[in-house]
Amino acid sequence: MQVCKLFLKIVKKNIFLFILYFSIFTLISVFMIKGQQTETKYKEQKIAATIIVEENSEETEAFLSFLELYIKNVNLKNGQNVSDALFWDDIDLYMYIPNDFYEKIIQGQAGIEIETSPDSLEATALLSTINSYFNSLRESVRLGICSKENAFSYTTKLFKEHHLVQVELTSKESTGGMRGVYDMAVYIIGALILSVVGIVSFEIRTTDINRRLRISSYSTGKRNIMLAICYTVFSILFVGVITCIAMMLFPKQITSRLFLYIMNSMLFALIAVFMALFLSSLFKSDMAYSCVSNVLPLATAFLCGCFIGLDILPEGTKAFAHIFPQLYIVMATQYIQTATEFIFLEYLKIIWPCFLFMGVFIIGSILITNHIAKSEN
């Protein structure tokens, strides 16, 4: 209990600093996540087009009625040719409809002449729609669904019934936001635990506290075990707070897999504790350790896909990131979200290197701590 009381006393002494760290890290991550999850609405707009008709007919009128869904007719300026109008974006599309276009389309030929602006994606999309329209027209005639005489009217009516002039698309609610929280939690947990362990460890090393602990019946090994337990409990509280934030941000994404996200984050919290203990044992200067504890979590977060999806990262970066345990936690988070059915053995195949990292950190901490204790004696 002596070590635990000492731990709580040091935490209480630096509580403002811990809260400040946690608030800054969390607010930055929340803003980043909410920015990624902002719902975007798209509205379909009509494009500017110039249409020249050689001869009006019933088929021409039906086809123009179909085009009204997608275009607004614009007349060329006096003396302006089609190429200039397309180049200067005065129009996005030019179309010439000859008098025999119907027969050519029925026969599978290009019945109309079309030119589009080279930088107009809308015009390119409209070309695809027109091709679909003509294909539907030909198939309707071939299959006997409608006669050749009323094929245009039938196809135009068909497209109008299945088309809204103004279409609003909203991103579908999924579990991507929840996963984003726990991806960034890898950075938050790592940064905070490294900071907490550093502050507590270096304050315990001060002469008065260190002498008092040596006089007591607690050995160095027992003291370190108790400190590791205190750090672990403290880190679990971090995970709990992050989970509450995730639930408040994305209440619609709360599923049975939330427990798996929490389990995965707690595993990393345990790894982060042993990693922090190992790193703190390597440094005699708290300033040097402070630099590492600030830089390392941020660097590994970028390398291991906490901020950027793993599918976007270069292969070389991902290969290098395998030397950090954060990568396997992020990969496991991705598996939890995307797997149709969660299989624990598959999860273990992803995160098993994390247990190797923990072993290395624990053994390294024990060896270095014993070496320091012997040298001081």
What does this entry look like structurally?
By secondary structure, the chain is α/β, with parallel strands linked by helices. Helix content is 67%, strand content 6%. The strands form 2 sheets. Strands 3-2-4-5 form a 4-stranded mixed β-sheet, covered by helices on one side. It has a two-stranded antiparallel ribbon with strand order 1-6. β2 (47-53), α3 and β3 (71-73) form a beta-alpha-beta unit.
Give keywords.
377 residues, alpha/beta, four-stranded mixed sheet, two-stranded antiparallel sheet, 15 helices
Q: Helix/strand-derived class?
A: alpha/beta
Give the low-pLDDT segments.
38-43, 164-173
Mean pLDDT: 78
Oligomer: single chain
Helix amount? 55-70%
Largest sheet: 4 strands, mixed
Radius of gyration: 33 Å
User: What is the chain-wise order of helices and strands?
Assistant: HHEEHEHEHEHHEHHHHHHHH
Helix count equals 15
- Largest sheet strand order: 3-2-4-5
Distance between the termini: 25 Å
Portion in beta strands: 5-15%
Task: State the shape.
Answer: elongated
Number of strands: 6
How would you concisely characterize the structure shown here?
By secondary structure, this protein is an alpha/beta fold. It has helices at 2-13, 15-36, 58-67, 82-87, 101-106, 121-142, 151-161, 176-204, 207-215, 220-249, 258-282, 286-303, 315-321, 325-338, 344-376, and strands spanning 42-43, 47-53, 71-73, 93-97, 113-116, 168-169.
Describe how the helices and strands are arranged.
Elements lengths: L1 H12 L1 H22 L5 E2 L3 E7 L4 H10 L3 E3 L8 H6 L5 E5 L3 H6 L6 E4 L4 H22 L8 H11 L6 E2 L6 H29 L2 H9 L4 H30 L8 H25 L3 H18 L11 H7 L3 H14 L5 H33 L1
Parallel strand pairs: 2-3, 2-4
Antiparallel strand pairs: 1-6, 4-5
Helix pairs in contact: 1-8, 2-8, 3-7, 6-7, 8-10, 8-11, 8-12, 8-14, 10-11, 11-14, 11-15, 14-15
